[in-house]
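Let us work through a complete example step by step.
Step 1: write down the sequence.
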Amino acid sequence: MPWKKLGIVFDPRNKTDWIKNYSWVPIPEHIGNGLFRVYFSGRTKENLSVPGAITIDIQNPFDLLDLTKKPLLELGNLGSFDDSGVIPSWILNHDGRKYMFYSGWMQGKRIPFHSSIGLAISDDDGKSFSKVSSAPYLPLNDIDPYFTASCCVFVEGGKWRMWYTSNTRWEIINNEATPKYHIKYAESDDGISWERLGVIAIDFNSDEEIAITRPWIIKEDGIYKMWFTYRGLSNKIGYAESPDGLLWERMKSENELDVSDTGCDSEMVSYGAVVEYSNKKYMFYNGNNYGETGIALAVFE
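Step 2: predict the structure and record it as tokens.
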């Protein structure tokens, strides 16, 4: 495996009073001179998820340079779609603004949670964000009747393009309601009204796979390259390529990331996010129990 794992670069425990544990679904953004601001969602002492960010130098990643003193977004009002969790998955820089796409969670009864995609915008370069609505940005419909979650959004040639998680159904597995979700594709002319035709970007490879989520895409040499989390017996980070962002080929490739024999990611790897700096690729990701002990980093060799 050509990914060289460097270890945990941020352990949220005992760092600030607004996080008890977890720093899951990292979103790295290069802010200049090797500095990366990494957005994530941490869990409060009430076990509810809210977003913050750290700053590190990729050349010396184990020294924490900054950590937000409070959450970048608060939970929604009681009964709203994000009253139990705000979990960012993508930052889009467009027309001088930062768009934070996030998964909003609401706790359930017959099912453990409901999820919908929300949106917040920053006009001060990410220092603060404001939600665009108290309702979901991408509402449920006949194409996505159960839930939507983590997404990736590009604006290309005036067209907004979204790859997003869509739940296909709930199943009872081991006496628990379990979602089965994969990655779909949608388009928009204005970033507001989305055309969803049920186009599947990344589908299940077998009956053993029950979850495919967190698309992370870069475009390199005219090829769309996606990393995504998939779960069978355990969570792993898969890889796919596409010439147009529509037709994807899942590939058994050196770009994939698997679990380690021991350590912080011996049980699972999840939510990989790949960035390039100084002719190297770096992957920020979560390990065991979906990032309970922090954000890990790997470099492609």
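Step 3: interpret the result. The first helix runs from residue 288 to 291.
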